[in-house]
Amino acid sequence: MKKNPAIFCSRNGFTLVEMMVALFIFSMLSVAGVIMLRSAVDSDAVTAENLGQMAEMQRFVSLMEADLSQALSRTYRDDGGDQMPAFSSEQGEGEAAFLKFTRGGQSNINGEARSNLERVEYRLSDGNLERWRYRMTDGGSTDQPAVLISRVGSLELRFRDKRGQWSDGWRTERLVDLPRAVEIRFEREGRSYRHLFLVGTGYL
To answer: pTM for this structure?
Structure first.
């Protein structure tokens, strides 16, 4: 009797269970990768926003420090020709200037025919802390304001006089009087900020 030759067959590929397990593992790895990528993107966005806010705050502090340190006991005349105090503060509703004064040390890169004095104002308008500069020391028009900080809430000031007394408003005995220091406090996105600036130290 003749025997049939043995047939050897090899099986290639995966079973259905093995395929499902592989797909499950692949899907888990994909989800984990997407979560990690999303977390990295969100972290970069938060870091960029925080760095932007820090740069914004540093620019404000540096500019106000430079302005106030070079404030001068110089009165000016408004558009009507009336003599105004060298330093004043209007605190209230609307777009009143909470700081108004004249500073020296203004650079003149273009060599224009003007003095090195500059009259500046600081205002809080719609949550934006702005710096305004006048083209002329007396009267004159202003340039477009520079926004230093955005999303600013309540703002409070205190002034230290020559006797060392602090007050919430600046009241002068003479038109040329300057405060010794200015304290500024404000809220921004749930955080409180406090900055102290010396006045006129650049000319002492």
So the answer is: 0.71
